[in-house]
Amino acid sequence: MSAITEHISVSTHGQGDIIDITSQAIEIIQKHNVYSGILCLFVPGSTAAITTIEYEPGLKKDINIFLEKLIPRNAHYHHHDTWHDDNGSSHLRASMTGPSITVPIVNGTLTLGTWQQIVVIECDTRSRNRKIVAQIVY
User: Fold this and answer.
1) How far is Cα 10 from Cα 81, in angstroms, rounded to an integer?
2) Rounded to an integer, what distance in angstroms lies between the CA atom of residue 48 and that of residue 122?
3) Residue 62 phi/psi, 5° resolution?
């Protein structure tokens, strides 16, 4: 078993920004000519998440509306009392969605569905530069 580690860099605009990183993930697979294995994508930090969605404007809005209803940005969070900041909702949104995803590589291709893209969801209340770890195990 071998592993290859690369990184995908993205700049976000703050809470609610959703960035499609599917093409960068595919480029990494192709760059290393991996035919069979798994790709794990992990975003370090506690205020961003990775998942898959159908990356289209309506669903991007729907996800943000859903997260705001579930975990409102302007609610009181004990995290604010501890650190005197405003991103308690950010930590909860990120932990609910999760920091990583693993996608099988079969026949040199990520096994994503027709309308399935890999996205980073920025949960922090400010813009961030994110460096996603992309590790292939084969």
Assistant:
1) 30
2) 5
3) -60, -40
Question: What percent of the chain is predicted at pLDDT more than 70?
Answer: 100
pTM of the model as a whole? 0.95
Q: So what's the pLDDT on residue 125?
A: 97
- 50-83 tens-digit pLDDT: 999 999 999 999 999 999 999 999 999 999 999 9
* Residues shown for the chain: 138
Structure tokens at 40: 């794990």
Cβ 50 vs Cβ 122: under 8 Å: no
Strand pairing partners for 21? none
CA 75 to chain centre: 24
Q: Which two tokens stand for residue 13?
A: 């605009």
Domains of the chain: 3-137 (2.60.120.460)
CB-CB neighbours of 24 under 10 Å: 18
Mean pLDDT, each 10-residue run in order, the chain (138 residues): 97 98 98 98 98 97 98 96 95 98 98 98 98 98
Question: Please, how many CA atoms are within 13 Å of residue 45, restricted to the half-sphere of its CB?
Answer: 20
